[in-house]
Amino acid sequence: MTPNLLAYAKFYYGCDSISGIPLEDDGGSGSAGAHWERSLLGDEAMTASSIYEPKYTAFTMSLLADSGWYQPNYDFADL
């Protein structure tokens, strides 16, 4: 779990002992373990399903910030 993502997950769920966000456990090598678990994060853009109107939440923005490649503007995060 990356530091910004872990901090956001603890805040979002109100749980200081949370250790991670579940990844997809179904599908092939392109989805299992590489995307958010759809049953928990629904229409989040980083789930493995095609979504008509994907949401870009602070979960994904935190992960992108931790990658070091992006500086997301959290003001634009979907709820």
Helix coverage percent: 25-40%
Radius of gyration: 12 Å
**What's the story with the biggest beta sheet?**
none
What pattern of helices and strands is seen along the backbone?
Answer: HHH
Overall average pLDDT = 91
- The number of strands is 0
- What is the terminal-to-terminal distance? 21 Å
Strand content: under 5%
General description of the model:
The structure is a single chain. The protein starts with a helix and ends in a 12-residue tail after the last helix. The mean pLDDT is 91. It has 79 residues and is mostly helical. The protein is globular, with a radius of gyration of 12 Å. 32% of the residues lie in helices and 0% in strands. The protein has three helices and no strands. Helix 1 packs antiparallel against helix 3 (58-67).
Could you give a quick summary of the protein structure above?
It is built from three helices and no strands.
List the helices and strands and how they pair.
Layout: H1 3-13, H2 38-41, H3 58-67
Helix pairs in contact: 1-3
List key phrases describing it.
single chain, mainly alpha, globular, 79 residues
